Amino acid sequence: MYLEVKNVKKSYGQDGSYIQVLKGVNTSVEKGQMCVIQGTSGSGKSTLLNCIGGLDTMDSGSVIVDGKEIFGLSPKKLSDYRRESLGFIFQFYNLVPNLTVRENIRICEYISQDPLDMDELLDTLGLTEHQNKFPSQLSGGQQQRCAIARALIKNPKLLLCDEPTGALDSKTSRDILMLLEKINEKYNTTMLIVTHNNSIKNMVHKVIYLKDGSITKDYENETRVPASQLEDL
Question: Is the dihedral of CA 205, 220, 162, 230 positive or negative?
Answer without folding.
Answer: positive
